[in-house]
């Protein structure tokens, strides 16, 4: 999978050189490139923003630098997916992460700043690629970079070969629509707190049943909206 990120803060993504995603880059499993939007400006001040039509506070990102960047990065065959982090987007979920990981092999992340990107950019881009506007949650960040980082990690880890043991992806929160069960490791008794006996029983069927019960109970308590009869 190739991932391109366009931002005015390219240094923000230097963290993608470490950990699992960094290793995947070194192994050419993930082909990840970060671009400075100002590379596509033409004026002496490398301007990327201007005042909003209709008035109001803040500035809006100019359309032309974005169009120049996307013209350079989007695949001519229309197979790219343009991912736009925005508070006004569709809530990002594990299902969307799975969909992006399995149906797109080229993602371009457009990280906005200020009050956002001129809306015409996405109208223009929609004839050149799939445009997906996604929200990290019902709160507002100062720009798209933090959201893009979270989305890139959630998608990147699902790409085959990135996570060493694919089994570890199966029993995670949201993978089966439920929150994950509580996990424990040695010692069996710690500061007066004991690991549930069933986990020490060696009885796999009972362990499996207990873990599912824990998932349902935790989901009902913390995220009842995820339960099928919600
Ligand atoms: O909260 B967010 O996900 C988000 C995304 C993009 C921009 C651009 C300016 N503010 C933003 C906030």
Automatic annotation (TrEMBL):
S-adenosyl-L-methionine binds at residues 112, 136-141. InterPro entries: Alpha/beta_knot_MTases, tRNA_m1G_MeTrfase_C_sf, tRNA_m1G_MeTrfase_TrmD, tRNA_m1G_MTases_N, tRNA_MeTrfase_TRMD/TRM10. Signal peptide: none annotated. Its main location: cytoplasm. GO terms for molecular function: tRNA (guanine(37)-N1)-methyltransferase activity. It is an enzyme of class 2 (transferase). It is found in: Cytoplasm. GO terms for biological process: methylation. Transmembrane segments: none annotated. Residues 1-227 form the tRNA methyltransferase TRMD/TRM10-type domain. Keywords: Cytoplasm, Methyltransferase, S-adenosyl-L-methionine, Transferase, tRNA processing. Its EC number is 2.1.1.228. It comes from the Bacteria. It catalyses: guanosine(37) in tRNA + S-adenosyl-L-methionine = N(1)-methylguanosine(37) in tRNA + S-adenosyl-L-homocysteine + H(+). Homodimer. Specifically methylates guanosine-37 in various tRNAs. Belongs to the RNA methyltransferase TrmD family. This is tRNA (guanine-N(1)-)-methyltransferase. It comes from Curtobacterium citreum. The gene is trmD.
């Amino acid at each position: 999978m190739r991932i391109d990120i366009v931002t005015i803060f390219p240094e923000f993504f230097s963290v993608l050189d470490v950990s699992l995603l960094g290793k995947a880059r070194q192994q050419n499993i993930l082909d990840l490139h970060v671009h400075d939007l100002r590379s596509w400006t033409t004026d002496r001040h490398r301007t990327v923003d201007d005042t909003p039509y209709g008035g109001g506070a803040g500035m809006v990102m100019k359309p032309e630098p974005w169009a120049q960047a996307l013209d350079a990065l989007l695949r001519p065959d229309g197979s790219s997916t343009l991912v736009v982090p925005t508070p006004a987007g569709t809530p990002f979920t594990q299902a969307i992460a799975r969909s992006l990981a399995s149906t797109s092999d080229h993602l371009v992340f457009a990280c906005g700043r200020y009050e956002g990107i001129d809306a015409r950019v996405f109208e223009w881009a929609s004839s050149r690629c799939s445009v997906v506007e996604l929200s990290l949650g019902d709160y507002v960040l100062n720009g798209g970079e933090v959201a893009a980082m979270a989305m890139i990690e959630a998608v990147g880890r699902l790409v085959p070969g990135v996570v060493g043991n694919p089994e570890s992806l199966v029993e995670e929160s949201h993978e089966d629509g439920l929150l994950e069960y509580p996990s424990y490791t040695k010692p069996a008794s710690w500061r007066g707190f004991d690991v549930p006996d069933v986990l020490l029983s060696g009885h796999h069927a009972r362990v499996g049943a207990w873990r599912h019960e824990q998932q349902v109970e935790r989901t009902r308590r913390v995220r009842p909206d995820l339960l099928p009869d919600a």
